[in-house]
Task: structure prediction
Amino acid sequence: MAFKSGFITIIGRPNVGKSTLLNLLTGEKVAIMSNKPQTTRTSIRTVLTTDDYQMVFVDTPGMHTPKNKLGQFMMKEVYNSIEDVDVIIYMVEATDKKIGKGDSRIIEELRKAGAPVILVINKIDLVEKESLLPLIAQYAQAYEFEEIIPVSALNADTKNQVLDVLFKLLPEGELYYPEDMLTDQQSKVLAQELIREKLLQLLSEEVPHGIGIEIISFKEDNDNNVIYIDADIYCEKKSHKGIVIGKNGTMLKRVGTLARQDMENLFDAKVVLKLWVKVKDDWRNNDFVLNELGYKDKD
Result:
């Protein structure tokens, strides 16, 4: 059997489960997850290699109407990700009753992209089976999908279900990345994202989207298998700084502990993590700060 390889983009509205699916398919926690929309801010490439294929997955920010320069950057990431890919996974929620405006816009973008598209209807565990049929019918009428797969991204069976369909659609090809490579993200970026994930999970609704993380120092002591990481947490308001730190520093300590545990699993090393919280007014519209935090055009 010929070896297959290709690039696969995962797109959809915010909070439909793109990062959850990516982590399930690759078997590693590379994309951060939270129940808040717009968790993913940049395109994350994750590589899955077996004897038969190499799939390069691109997880993208949720499609939304930008309200600041960070949002504009995120949308540019999405549009760039559907150019020149081999397959597109388009995710929607089973809880939707019909195709909304946001998804209609995404379908228009799919028409321009020209790549084969799989529709993955996620969160089927939250609805009755009968309610899925009208939604499937609407999407089948709206676009000619290669396959429509109803799934729960929390269910382990979903992995092979989706991978089997992707394998059929991939072209024959060579390795794009070394066999043992998991992601093209630098360790610094992965550390930055894990800190942000914990803040998203632990903080109240309005605070997390105004938070940015900058890794100030990332030093590896290979002799002792220890990584020393210093990071600044930027928030937009003084009141938010107090919330991030918490009473007697309890929140910041909790964030640090959980992020450090995930980093140690991912990097397979002991991690010494130090966090500081700083206020930067309206940083999501500040080109310099966005650049410093890694939200910059790659072209």
